[in-house]
Sequence to fold (243 residues):
Amino acid sequence: MKPALNEDMLNLAPGGNLLVAIAGSMDLAKAQKMIEKFAPPELDTMSNKVETVTGMEIQDLLDAISGDFTIAINGVEGQEMIPLEIFIGIGVNGKALQEKLMETVQGLAPIDEEGDFFIINFQGNEIYSGIVNDILVVTNAKGYKEAVKSGTHGTPLTSSRFGDFADGSLGMFVNLELDEYPAMLQGMLVQRPEASQWVERFTEPFDYVGMSAGNYKNKVVVKTSDPSENSLYTILKMVDKAE
Fold:
């Protein structure tokens, strides 16, 4: 792993109504050497699948990326067809990965090019894809292209609750407060009582879970919704109920 996450990427990622985020910074040269040394028999099959999905041979793909990535999912209220804003950031070396991505999408949906961004129109929803500071950004966040250009795309990931877990080379945050999820998603869950019961059983005792990891230190935080309970007691109680 690299010593730290890509801060430019975290600042490009929205975090205003954060539900889930994960980010990492891998040293691909070291990772590749380790994979070659301890390669499992299934590696060739996996490589073939990666080539099928990306349209790039595995070595070309590794040369095209830097090892930095970020995924952030935010909730959206209102009458949006998709009640989630999804951001994917990938550190890149040049434009090879984006060009392959656009080749793949070309026959599936209309694409317009505006400045540094491609705009993909998927069933009436705009998806933006562009390279900013050697970061390939793919997101459906409304107005993202204009917001990034003006430097006002709202609360970045670094200023969200994920910021507490951005001090290593891998960070993760999951919001477990269902009340903060879009009403549309809550409604879909209510329509499936059995699934709703299980989801509530595992999420109701907690506010969130966060994790950061680095080469020399790791941190895991499980925040309970009841301040009088510690996380270990809450987990044991939840497991006992499940049985």
Summary: Strands lie at 18-25, 65-75, 84-92, 111-114, 117-122, 125-132, 135-139, 170-175, 206-213, 218-224.
